[in-house]
Amino acid sequence: MSTLSRAVFILGFATLLGACATSGPKFSEASARHAEGRDPETARVYLYRTALHGAAVQPEVKVNGTVVGRAVPNGYFYVDQTPGPCEITTTTEVERKLTLTLDKAQVRYVRLNLSFGFFVGHVYPELIDEELALKEIQDLRFTGQ
Predict the structure, then answer these.
(1) What is the DSSP code (8-state) at residue 26?
(2) Contact (CB, 8 A) for 118 and 93
(3) What is the mean pLDDT of residues 109-135?
(4) C-alpha–C-alpha distance, residues 56 and 65, integer Å
(5) How many CB atoms lie within 10 A of CB 110?
(6) How far is residue 62's CA from residue 77's CA, in Å, rounded to a whole number?
(7) Which pLDDT value is given to residue 33?
(8) Under DSSP, is residue 55 helix (H, G, I), strand (E, B) or coil?
(9) CATH classification for the domain delimited by 3-142, as one of 3.40.1350, 2.40.360, 1.10.3470, 2.60.40
């Protein structure tokens, strides 16, 4: 098998694995369930990735230094946090960071974007306003626990 054929096979296999990883319920089907039993003293951050390109790049996502999920293409998950400063990081070749402040009962949306790096793609967090995020996240599948 040539090097090019091997690379195409690996990328295809990684894409297939990425597609399998997003088999949870769609946001549009599960968002009401996510709200059930939510602590009103906490803030919620939805993290999502829309792009399928670069499917093999699925770095861990950390919130305040704790791993909370992976940047899976066409997937989303959420984390509840105490109000205050919040740092969201992803690491591939380099660490990408987003810092924001959360208020009690607030809901924020962070899109995990892919940019091209020297060896591999970089996934970086970007704060998105609620109106746009709710349009983008509707068909994405839950990848959290």
Answers:
(1) B
(2) yes
(3) 90
(4) 23
(5) 24
(6) 12
(7) 85
(8) coil
(9) 2.60.40
